[in-house]
Amino acid sequence: KKQTPPSPPGPYGLPILGYLPFLQPNLHYNFTKLAYKYGPIYKLRLGTKLCIVISSPSLIKEVVRDQDAIFANRDPPVAALVATGGGLDIAWSPYGPYWRDMRKLFVHEMLSNKNIQASYLLRKGEVRKMVRNLRCKIGEPFNIGEVVFLTAVNVITNLLWGGMNGGGKWDRLGGEFREKLSKLMDLFGKPNVSDFIPCLGKFDVEGIEKDMREVLSSAEEILDVVVGERMKIMKGGGECRGERRRDFLEILFEGLTQKQIVKQDSVLGGTDTTATTVEWVMTELLDKPHVMEKVQQELTGVVGVNNIVEESHISKLHYLDAVVKETFRLHPPLPLLIPRSPSQSCTVGGYTIPKGSRVFLNMWSISMDPQLWENPLEFHPNRFLNDTRNFDYMGNNFQYLPFGSGRRMCPGLPLGEKMVMYLLATLIHSFEWRLPEGEMIDLSEKFGFVMRKSKPLQAIPYQRLPYLNLYE
Ligand code: HEM
């Protein structure tokens, strides 16, 4: 008789609530501590939901490579279902034809090599605008993450529907929209009892659904205006600002309704990950002046002293690339990636994983594993120089997956990587950075859908080289 493999080990919990009352807010840390006790694959019952936590490269490979098709489904939290109209966006829609079509449009059209190259002028314009704004703040402390976020939002919304920040009207809407988007991302990450005890769903005990609906209705009002305006132009047969680059909206108009377009929140989520990464890199560099000095030297050698950074310089910035990679290791923006859910019962590591369970891939714990990394708690960019182990972002080394892996891997990778490097190279080449008087570096993190710093980085820019007028 064929025997069913056993269920993974795991802690016991209370009746009905399971392990829910014992969960701590820093979930990645909590899950890592449990792995010390129960091993690299264990189960947790949170309310009625069976969760599986995996934290070894070989078991992660079984999920995202060997059984990728089975694990390509998501198990969206209530907040995400509310935000995406029941899963109309790319990140939360179930694995199937709708997701495939959306993702194909996104990857082959919006983020095709041709479109990314054609949109360089747009990125250049936004990055220059950022430097001009920073010139007015020389000697003053300000929030780096916020400035970078605005630049990333402008680039991505421009790629999506072009021109949101082109005139006074879009500038105002863009600022408001940024606020809503941050709130929306925070709500994705908040643990919600309704996710784990569905019969409590209608009571919305923590008010997350209510908050989400409020944020959404104002965010969507803004999107409706933008999308509606563009639909009018398209229906009138008008040329979109005479540009040759087709933006995502134009492409989407070919097959989707306005409602489906407005629900592309996950695409916009790319702005939060980009800004958070830049903020973490700047924090690590301000904490380690010798590393900052090496990055500056590299930039001076590659870009020169009387010149401004161009995207063509990026491929020559090997040390900065290693600094970014090491930052992704120590502070992965999505420490548990986006949870998967098997579409049929299957076996991982010799254990049964039931259909519909929520599977967390704990990349944070892998990043901190002393068996896999020498001195894992220390910041050593050199470990990524002269790398022979494929520590790139392509999702083939299961010890290092900042952009995920398999069918559900981040489709925004080509843009995200470019933006992070270009923004950092410009910020560091143009300015000398210091902390405000009496301020200490704070490296603590706050768990969320995107893992941000618990205290935003405040830093002061000083003019570094005499060429800043080139940005005028
Ligand atoms: C530093 C930048 C970024 C990082 C670190 C990052 C990381 C990730 C990760 C870890 C995932 C989950 C992958 C998985 O489940 O295996 C993901 C998914 C996704 N990302 Fe990114 N991302 C970044 C930038 C972007 C950008 C710029 C965009 C859009 C322009 C974007 C759009 C998406 C979308 C749509 C998904 C869902 C894919 C799906 O479910 O099919 N990301 N990202």
UniProtKB/TrEMBL annotation:
Topology of this chain in the membrane: Single-pass membrane protein
Stored PROSITE patterns = CYTOCHROME_P450
Tell me which InterPro entries the record gives.
Cyt_P450, Cyt_P450_CS, Cyt_P450_E_grp-I, Cyt_P450_sf
Q: What's the superkingdom here?
A: Eukaryota
Cofactor(s) required, per the database record: heme
Can you name one GO molecular function term for this protein? iron ion binding
Q: Does the keyword Coiled coil apply?
A: no
Keyword terms, alphabetized: Heme, Iron, Metal-binding, Monooxygenase, Oxidoreductase, Signal
| Any Pfam family hit | p450
GO CC terms: membrane
* Binding residues for heme: 410
Main subcellular location: membrane
Localized where? Membrane
Tell me the PANTHER family matching this sequence. Answer: FLAVONOID 3',5'-HYDROXYLASE-LIKE ISOFORM X1, OS08G0547900 PROTEIN
Q: Which family does it belong to?
A: Belongs to the cytochrome P450 family.
The protein here is known as: Cytochrome P450 CYP2 subfamily
Say which species the protein is native to.
Answer: Handroanthus impetiginosus
